[in-house]
Design brief:
Blueprint: E1 6-11, E2 27-28, E3 31-32, H1 33-41, E4 47-52, E5 65-68, H2 75-89, E6 94-99, H3 109-116, E7 122-127, E8 130-131, E9 136-139, H4 143-151, H5 157-164, E10 166-170, H6 185-197
Parallel strand pairs: 1-4, 1-6, 4-5, 7-10
Antiparallel strand pairs: 2-3, 6-9, 7-8
Length: about 200
Amino acid sequence: MAKNQVLGVILAGGKGRRMGLDKAQLCLGGQRMLDRACARLAPQVAQLAISVASASPSDPDQVPVRLADPVEDGGPLAGILAGLQHAQAHGFTQIVSAAVDTPFFPQDLVARLLQARQGGNVALPSSLDRAHPTFALWPVSALESVRAAVERGQGALIRCIEAQGSTPVRFDAVPVDPFFNVNTPADMDAARALLEAHPELT
């Protein structure tokens, strides 16, 4: 399975309640978190899209597609649904999702998920014995089951992945956990410290 069949979807529809502002617009290493996520994912996929709940400041140039959540307050699963709908309409066979608040996610994420995925399962990465359901490779064949879950109000992402079936893919947490995510101002301070200590993460 080649990356030219994969649509990348940056999940940026969260309201950042614990942070108190839009996390996509936070600055780390001289870049907005949104720009950073796009720069990491764009080389790994055929096309990049951003899933948003509402209007937000300008998107990076490498994002040709903006996807609105199909339901209000549907959580990340609504962003997955929007991505699957777009993928089906434009001939992609897979989507890979990535959370905008995870600044160090792997630059070989898609290659490893593609290699590991089995049948119609969702390839689900993990690190430090924790699964990371906002980062997953979904087949477009999952569209109707995801749509049904969203319409029923069953928006728990991990529950939907379990119903679909998943293939676990383990990532090492060296030199840092690649799925470290920013939820609070303290997390943002920690991310800046990690980047200063490990400039190769830029």
